[in-house]
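Section 4.2 – Deliverable D4.2 (structural model, holo form)

The reporting period included a commitment to supply a predicted holo structure for the target in complex with adenosine-3',5'-cyclic-monophosphate. Inputs used:
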Amino acid sequence: MRETTLAIIKPEAVKRGLAGDILKRIQGAGLALRALRLVGLSRAQAEAFYDVHRERPFYRSLCEYMISGPVVVAALEGEGAIARWRELMGATDPAQAAPGTIRKDFGIDIEQNAVHGSDSAATAAREVPFFFSALDLVG
Ligand code: CMP
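Output (C-alpha cells):
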C-alpha cells in the first residue's frame, strides 16, 4: 500500500550537518520526498506535536531539545513507507538500534536520536498535516 509518513531530522543532526546524509539514505531506500522544509519550532508547536507524550517524564526535556535549533521536516511517500522509514531509522534508543540504521550511526542518546518518524498510519495522518498542507505535497 502506498503511504505517506512524516520524517523529522532533529536539531543535533541538523547542527552537525547530517541532513544531507540522512536525506540521501531516505532517497537511496526508494522513499520519495513529497515535501521538505527547514523549521524553527516554537515551544507551543513542539508541545503540541509531542502532546501524546505529555505525561511522560521526558516530555519537558524533549520539547526543550526540539526547540534548541532548526529541524528539517519531510513528507515521505512509498510502498509501506511508514514501516520502511521506521526500519531505516532503527530503534528509538541509538544504543539498541541495529547496525546501519540512522539512529545507530548518527544518534547520540535516546533523546538526541537524530530522527523522528510516524509510528502508525493514524499517527502519520496527524503528523503530516501538522507541517504540510495538501498544496505543499508535490506529485
Ligand atoms: P521520537 O521518535 O521523536 O518520539 C518521542 C521522542 O522522545 C523520542 O523519539 C526521543 O527523542 C524522546 N525520548 C526521550 N526519552 C525517551 C524515552 N525514555 N523513551 C522514548 N522516547 C524518549
